UniProtKB/TrEMBL annotation:
<keyword id="KW-0547">Nucleotide-binding</keyword>
<dbReference type="InterPro" id="IPR011604">
    <property type="entry name" value="PDDEXK-like_dom_sf"/>
</dbReference>
<dbReference type="GO" id="GO:0006281">
    <property type="term" value="P:DNA repair"/>
</dbReference>
<dbReference type="GO" id="GO:0043139">
    <property type="term" value="F:5'-3' DNA helicase activity"/>
</dbReference>
<keyword id="KW-0227">DNA damage</keyword>
<dbReference type="GO" id="GO:0005524">
    <property type="term" value="F:ATP binding"/>
</dbReference>
<dbReference type="GO" id="GO:0003677">
    <property type="term" value="F:DNA binding"/>
</dbReference>
<keyword id="KW-0540">Nuclease</keyword>
<dbReference type="Pfam" id="PF08696">
    <property type="entry name" value="Dna2"/>
</dbReference>
<dbReference type="GO" id="GO:0006260">
    <property type="term" value="P:DNA replication"/>
</dbReference>
<keyword id="KW-0067">ATP-binding</keyword>
<comment type="similarity">
    <text>Belongs to the DNA2/NAM7 helicase family.</text>
</comment>
<keyword id="KW-0479">Metal-binding</keyword>
<keyword id="KW-0378">Hydrolase</keyword>
<keyword id="KW-0411">Iron-sulfur</keyword>
<dbReference type="InterPro" id="IPR014808">
    <property type="entry name" value="DNA_replication_fac_Dna2_N"/>
</dbReference>
<dbReference type="InterPro" id="IPR047187">
    <property type="entry name" value="SF1_C_Upf1"/>
</dbReference>
DNA sequence: GTTTAAGACTAAAAC
């Protein structure tokens, strides 16, 4: 049996209940899950055991059809049954669980395991027993690291989140020693492992100024301790090992990765020294977390091992004869419950949004390495802190901004946690329908790789889509990612056959998206840096206290497009910032490239960034073309642009191998290698291109630039934009706020981009590109008048007059008269279903046939619909080589012919139609022909759509 | 009543 049967609890049993040893209690122990329904009453009562604390919590029980109620406990405690009937009842938490009760607020979720059911005044109520655990907000999956930080000091946990962990040698070395430890457990040769692991971290070590030999020597020292200990184990018994196992507990709401699991018990490796007899308390807490996690995975352990690898044989404890460096200790019930209470504190704080002060726990500021940081943050943001405050508080508007965005980012974080919870709340089929899992794979083969890892192959049995892509980290499982056999794995190949690599040879039949807090972490750090480390002048501009200034530039950069030329002048001459507004097809990317070239020619170091890898690569490609021009014009310049082997050396693309396109791969900065070389490559680069997420990485945070150019800035949140512009003296944002805004999970302040805010605040700092190179004149009219004040116009007569006739083998005369105009409307009454319309779908299939008959290639036709359901409906009725997608996914691309399915009959209600930016995107994708398909009476019910109708019917 | 991307050094590393 599991934890529930662990000897006796450390707490007195609730007064008036049967003894925990009474078998009858075990048989009626229940698993209670529900939502706090009112104020919690905490008080002290006299019992036969003396004074006891209790908390009465009004709880609305979960129901079977709620996801939460569905979570039948999986722990091996036979007598437990879940109660899930939606009743409102009282749950009494006794003794130390009252500490968790004090954290509860109405609306929070609560789980009590091994509760006792009892009748009170005709009502069935529940209370904790000596074997209960109480879990607050169980779907908030707290990481073991968070709990470890929190027990040291809650404020340390907060500061780590806020300002990130800086690049420092002890941390990097610690990571290396752990990697080598894992390798040893998997049977890899020590020297080979050390060489490989140090090589992999070349760039980081280089930034720290370390040499490979010195690092290797240090790792060898730690490895000696590990090897010695492993030898001891091998002499005495057959060990069963598992290294670096990722564990998730749905009952306790904890996740973590154990360094190693030996005969079912957690082993934690520490790089430091500890000559005391006992392990450090925070290390014990960490091991106890893994014990809880292992418990849920069928283990039953109460022993933890801590391996202090800096301890050597010389440090052998004379007094105790302790075998160093390993320290074994026993985990009692009390420690495990304490850990769950710690975890509850984190979950509750995160839910309520409160900022930790340090008083929550017994923090000792005088020994803390983060004391100064803590005091500065407290002082600048005027936060209460046990360490005290230093310095002047930021102006009120900046603190208000901080609070607003902190809340918004944390809200996003909670959404990420909700994604974790779906791993067990949703069925495999639901996950697959959400595109978040590939299920029903057929396991094919496993193959051991060099270094002890495994290559696993599985065959796809269906053609289902998923968000998973090559290079992604995923949860690979035997069908159940939480309770079953699962490992964190990397997707190497993804076609009919799936190839992944993992530490253990799981018989994989399912892959799940593994949610990550990385993006939210980086947003928080970017906002922190912008406010607390940001230059005053920069903040004056961001907060509307000073107008951006410009140096007058007379130079002509682009001679056939006045606005583009002006945009480059503004970008080059900006003292603070410049804003380039580029409607569809207006040559934003070219303009950026030209501006960067001009900056580079002035000897400046430039950062090129955007939200997506694709956008970064596009802009970089345009820049490389520009630089080619330089070489063509001036052979002397070419010497400096090119290295001996003909490759540009002053341009570097920072990003992962899977993120960067094959075309840009030659410019990608490799992380592995000789430290000094890698650092030189990065630091000598005059142009560095990276996504905004990468700009927030520890590596990029060390870099400084004269200017940052951010493309597609209207799709970035403010903190996302800050990640890039924090690194530069001046910045240029390029985008179009009349197209779709940033994608965020929760409705909050993140939905407006910094680009949009600044364009509105400082119209004079912006330039709107007004000539488009994409659409026939008739097509662009509506978007131009509706979204761009009529300023958008064709760049050339050729663009204005382009029609299908220009395409080889296509004749407009072969089209029915209704389609002869570049813009046409097809009135379809449609069916009444909400997210699909089969009549529109049929009509569209028919239209495609007619275009084909007129000589058009299917691949030149795109179909856009608002709903995914309609997209699949249309996909099933039209040929495969016609692109069919939602508006949102069509943004950024264009087609010769676009057909739009409005999928609305009778009325236009629904949030999807309310954002007019969506129609702007849909209507500006075609070059030569646009066909709108919909119900005219529904469209006429909204003034904007009505004007669209008039325009299409002209 | 909807739609939506992509990022990536996973979590843990330690003075």
């Amino acid at each position: 049996m599991g934890i529930v049967s662990r000897e006796r609890g450390d707490e007195p049993v609730a007064a008036g209940t049967d003894s925990v040893f009474d078998r009858s209690l075990v048989t009626i122990a229940v698993y209670v899950r529900g939502t706090v329904a009112g104020e919690v009453d905490v008080r002290t009562v006299s019992t036969s055991y003396g004074e006891s604390d209790l908390a009465e919590v009004p709880v609305r029980l979960a129901t079977d059809d709620e996801p939460a109620g569905d979570a039948t406990p999986t722990r091996s405690d036979g007598g437990t049954a879940a109660v899930a009937d939606g009743r409102e009842t009282t749950v009494t938490l006794w003794n130390k669980w009252t500490e968790s009760a004090e954290l509860l607020e109405p609306g929070m979720e609560l789980v009590v395991t091994n509760a006792k059911e009892e009748e009170y005044q005709g009502e069935t109520q529940y209370k904790t027993t000596g074997e209960s655990y109480v879990v607050v907000e169980p779907s908030f999956l707290v990481s073991v690291t968070s709990i470890r930080n929190w027990v040291e000091c809650p404020r340390l946990y907060y500061l780590n989140k806020l300002s990130g962990v800086p690049l420092n040698y002890p941390v990097v070395k610690g990571t290396l020693v752990h990697e080598v430890f894992g390798d040893l457990l998997r049977g890899r040769d020590l020297e080979e492992s050390i060489d490989a692991r140090v090589e992999e971290r070349g760039l980081q070590l280089g930034l720290l100024g370390e040499t490979p030999d010195a690092v290797k020597e240090e790792i060898r020292e730690n490895a000696k301790a590990i090897e010695g200990w492993l030898e001891q184990g091998r002499l005495t018994e057959e060990d069963s090992w598992r290294s670096e196992q990722l564990l998730i507990s749905e009952t306790f709401g904890i996740r973590g990765r154990a360094d190693a699991v030996r005969r079912g018990a957690p082993v934690e490796l520490k790089t430091g020294k500890n000559l005391k007899k006992e392990p450090r308390f925070k290390d014990k807490v960490q091991a106890a977390c893994y014990a809880l996690l292992l418990e849920e995975h069928g283990g039953d352990v109460d022993i933890g091992t801590l391996l202090y690898t800096k301890n050597s044989a010389l440090d052998r404890n004379e007094e105790t004869g302790d075998l160093t460096p390993a320290k074994e200790f026993t985990m009692g019930d009390g420690l495990l419950k304490y850990v769950v209470r710690l975890r509850n504190e984190i979950a509750a704080k995160e839910t309520s949004g409160e900022i930790p002060t340090g008083y929550e726990a017994d923090a000792k500021c005088e020994y803390c390495f983060e004391q100064d940081t803590c005091m500065v943050v407290s002082g600048r943001l005027d936060q209460e802190s046990k360490a005290g405050q230093i310095g002047q508080a930021l102006p009120a508007e900046e603190r208000e901004y901080f609070d607003r965005f902190y809340r918004a980012i944390e809200e996003e974080r909670r959404e990420v946690h909700r994604e974790y919870a779906k791993l067990w709340e949703q069925t495999a089929e639901e996950r697959a329908d959400d595109d978040r899992a590939l299920i029903d794979l057929e396991f094919v083969a496993k193959r051991p790789l060099e270094g002890g890892r495994w290559e696993l192959r599985a065959r796809r049995t269906g053609g289902a889509n998923s968000k998973l892509r090559e290079g992604d980290l995923v949860l690979a499982s035997d069908g159940d990612p939480v309770r079953g056999d699962s490992e964190l794995a990397r997707i190497e190949r993804l076609d009919d056959e799936v190839v992944i690599t993992a530490d253990e040879p799981v018989a994989v039949t399912r892959l799940d998206v593994y949610p990550s807090e990385l993006t939210t972490d980086r947003l928080l750090v970017a906002m922190h840096d912008a406010l607390l480390k940001g230059d005053e002048r920069r903040k004056d501009v961001l907060f509307g206290r000073a107008e951006p200034e410009f140096e007058e530039i007379d130079e002509a950069f682009i001679d056939n497009n006045e606005r583009q030329n002006e945009a480059v002048r503004k970008a080059v001459g900006a003292e603070d910032c410049a804003l380039i507004h580029g409607p569809p097809g207006t040559g934003k990317t070219y303009t950026i490239a030209r501006a960067i070239r001009a900056m580079v020619e002035r000897g400046e170091r430039v950062l090129l960034s955007a939200f997506t890898n694709r956008a970064v690569d596009n802009a970089l490609e345009a820049l490389l073309e520009q630089l080619e021009d330089v070489i063509d014009e001036d052979s002397v310049a070419s010497e400096t642009q090119r290295s001996g082997d003909g490759e540009a050396v002053d341009v570097v693309r920072v990003g992962s191998e899977s993120g960067v396109s094959d075309e840009m791969e030659p410019y990608r900065l490799e992380r592995a290698g000789e430290p000094a070389d890698r650092v030189a490559e990065l630091e000598d680069a005059q142009v560095v291109a990276a996504t905004t997420a990468t700009c927030g990485s520890r590596i990029m945070k060390e870099q400084a630039f004269d200017a940052a150019l951010v493309d597609e800035a209207a799709q970035l949140t403010e903190p996302g934009t800050c990640a890039a512009i924090n690194l530069a003296e001046r910045f240029v944002l390029v985008g179009d706020h009349e197209q779709l805004p940033p994608v965020v999970r929760a409705e909050n302040d993140l939905t407006e981009s910094l680009f949009e805010r600044l364009v509105e605040r400082y119209p004079d700092a912006g330039v709107m590109l007004d000539r488009q190179y994409r659409m026939n004149q008739r097509i662009q009219v509506f978007a131009s008048t509706e979204f761009y004040d009529g300023q958008l116009r064709p760049a050339t007569p050729e663009v204005a007059g382009r029609t299908l006739d220009d395409l080889e083998g296509v004749s407009r005369d072969a089209l029915p008269e209704t389609l002869s105009d570049p813009v046409s409307f097809v009135d379809v009454e449609g069916d009444r279903s909400q997210y699909t319309d089969s009549e529109e779908a049929e009509r569209i299939a028919d239209l495609i046939e007619r275009y084909e008959a007129a000589g058009l290639e299917r691949s030149d036709i795109g179909v856009i619909a608002p709903f995914r359901a309609q997209v699949s409906e249309i996909s099933s009725t039209v040929p495969d080589d016609v692109t069919v997608d939602t508006v949102d996914r069509f943004q950024g691309s264009s087609q010769e012919v676009i057909i739009v399915s409005f999928t609305a009959t009778g009325s236009l209600e629904g949030p999807i139609f309310e954002d007019y930016r969506r129609i702007n995107v849909a209507l500006t994708r075609p070059k030569r022909a646009l066909v709108l398909v919909g119900d005219s009476s529904a469209l006429a019910s909204d003034p904007v759509y009505e004007r669209m109708l008039e325009w299409a019917r002209q």
